[in-house]
Amino acid sequence: MQYQSQAVAKPYFIAAIGLFVGQIIFGLIMGYQYVVGDFLFPEIPFNVARMVHTNLLIVWLLFGFMGATHYLIPEEAETELFSPKLGLITFWVFLVAGALTIVGYLMVPYATLAAMTGNDLLPTMGREFLEQPLITKVGIVIVVLTFLFNISMTVLKGRKTSISLVLLVGLWGLAIFFLFSFYNPSNLVLDKYFWWWTVHLWVEGVWELILGAMLAFVLIKVTGVDREVIEKWLYVIIAMTLITGIIGTGHHYFWIGTPEYWQWFGSVFSALEPIPFFMMTVFAFNMVNRRRREHPNKAATLWALGTGVMAFLGAGVWGFLHTLAPVNFFTHGTQVTAAHGHMAFYGAYVMVNLAMISYAMPMLRGRTANSGAAQTLEMWSFWLMTVSIVFITLFLTAAGILQVWLQRMGDTPMGFMAAQDQIMIFYWLREITGFVFLLGLVMYIWSFFCKKGEAQTAA
Amino acid sequence: MDTPHKPHFIRPCTRIWLALMILTCTTFAIGETGWSGTAVMLTVLGTAVIKVEMVANYFMGLRRTRWLWRGLVLGWLILVSGLITIAYLMTVK
Amino acid sequence: MINNTRTSHEIHATPPGDLAIWFFIYAELLAFGVFFVAYAFARANNVELFNESQQHLNRTSGAINTLVLITSSYFMVRAVAAIKQGLSNSCARWIAAAIGLGFVFLAIKIAEFNATFATGISLSTNTFYMFYLSLTLFHFMHVILGMVILAAIMVKALRGGYSAENHIGVETGASYWHMVDLLWIILFPLVYVIR
């Protein structure tokens, strides 16, 4: 750790991992509800479990991004944070607000929560992923703006690098597109139309800038390759990401009542979205092959390479599978989407956060890398989590294909629930694999407490 | 500093430029006649293919690079023009 | 200055300019390629509609724009040639001429768009116009991007930022600009002429 204020990142990382565990537990609960419908009913109905699962994912990824930013910006800007205290205040406000929201989801019925939190003043609730009560949304805006102020001031007073520039653009974009969660037109088409401006333009737009910046930072650190080389590739990847990602929003506009040309725009541009991900993979492997030093943190390198490969597979390949309008006509809203969602979120955003945490956490605890034994454990966790997400994706893809076949094709298509009964076996397999994933996550956490072996302290 | 020679590629590129201008006028003239049919379509598309190769090899200088870089453009061109041809021939019965 | 004579027939390992721009160029080719093929197959399902609508396009302005872009592209060849001789000012002048023709292209295109929109045609009119408008608009934006790149290079050249030995920036911009030209060379016959 080169700057004292980087320590602000630590609570963010710890909270991120804690919430990650929560996300997985709720994933297991709802995975079980897929096969045993009344499990935990009426305490935790399926819709609540799902809401908690997805909301926790988003919140912990945000914690990860914010932690990563607090860690890497001082090193990039070569200066202490503008205000470490502000960094800690935003952390606690965000954590308490997030926790209260989850408690609200679990303790009272959603409609009651809406009434309690002033949803009638400005109705914003009830939309997938943006279920947060109005006060939470306002809180998120305040937290993010405070955080952005702190970070922007730090960059302004220090060295300006491409990585911090790309990261800042990504974070500001994240803030700006979140504002569309407050816009809830009564016209259902417009509602959906702008809903995607938050949802799609986050994960297939500005978040990718954050991802690119974080990955580039970790690669510079573990490979020692010239900054100029890495930055150049970062720019090319970012440009491709934005061109394909922004117009690629069209792949959500196929069947919601928007003009027909979106079927062409959406198909063509989103079909190209795998390219930047592919370039990212090539880039990551290239940099590691051209490395100028042997960084002792092998686990972080593994996570960084894994990010490239899994993001390409999950976001790129599995996205492409159902992005062409004629295919999507049959697959939209089926388990194919769920398959893509799981692998894309894991491959792109979960893994880049774990790579960053894997690299930064030992530093924050005063060592260059964890001991060999701890790293071995961590690499096991890498393979367990990655392989289980691959299998979860494969099972859900199989479930999705069967679902499409039974429910949407043929002369006598089945009803939704009848089709669900037929694909039950895949839901069982997915649930079992989910426990393997949890085991991997526990090992990841454990690796940070592993006392065996010598930690490497040489800088 | 000794005066450098004029780059050797100016003259060929000037000829290529002239050829491109003439070929463009040919394409335009065919368009004006209003002719249609497979032969016309193939002529116009073939002209475009030749022009693209001229630009890629001379203007972009790919003829003086490894075959990989030329091949990528050529492969792309064959694929795209091939598929376009197939799409057009599909409608001619 | 051995550059120009001895190496004239040498095979280079990488294309002119920064390799990164070439990855970008190949990605762009792919994007346009997908669009061109989509156009052709959409037409196959709607031959009469496409042939009828195509009649209303301004073929003359399309052809003039082809000539304009080809010539502009040629000027960039001259700009690269100039800087290889170490002639910064001459290089900047050739780039300025290339940019000037870029403006001519944009002006003609805007006039064409104006005339089209004035008749009430939009992206939703029919599949042909959807393709015509989106392909040409997409290309239009590439012309603007290319001009921005060329302008930045011209300014650097004027300040003496390039030399006979170090001119990779000029080649990078030229390569991108040639690509913009190359795409139009397919786009024009495909959308305006072939039926």
Strand percentage of chain C: under 5%
Shape field of chain B: flat
Main beta sheet of chain B, described?
none
CATH architecture of chain C: Up-down Bundle
Number of helices of chain C: 6
CATH topology (fold) name of chain C: Four Helix Bundle (Hemerythrin (Met), subunit A)
CATH class of chain C: Mainly Alpha
Structural class of chain B: mainly alpha
Largest interface: B-C, 53 and 60 residues
User: Could you report the average pLDDT of chain B, rounded to the nearest whole number?
Assistant: 92
Based on the model shown, name its key terms.
heterotrimer, B: 93 residues, mainly alpha, 3 helices, flat, C: 195 residues, Four Helix Bundle (Hemerythrin (Met), subunit A), 76% helix
Protein described:
The complex is a heterotrimer of chains A (459), B (93) and C (195). With 459 residues, chain A is mainly alpha-helical. Chain A contains 16 helices and no strands. Chain A has a domain at 1-160. In chain A, helix 1 (9-35) packs antiparallel against helix 16, helix 2 crosses helix 13 and helix 5 (134-157) packs antiparallel against helix 6. The mean pLDDT of chain A is 95. By secondary structure, chain B is mostly helical. Chain B has helices spanning 10-33, 38-59, 67-91. Chain C has 195 residues and is mainly α. Chain C has a single domain (15-193), classed as Four Helix Bundle (Hemerythrin (Met), subunit A), CATH 1.20.120. Chain C is elongated and about 55 Å long.
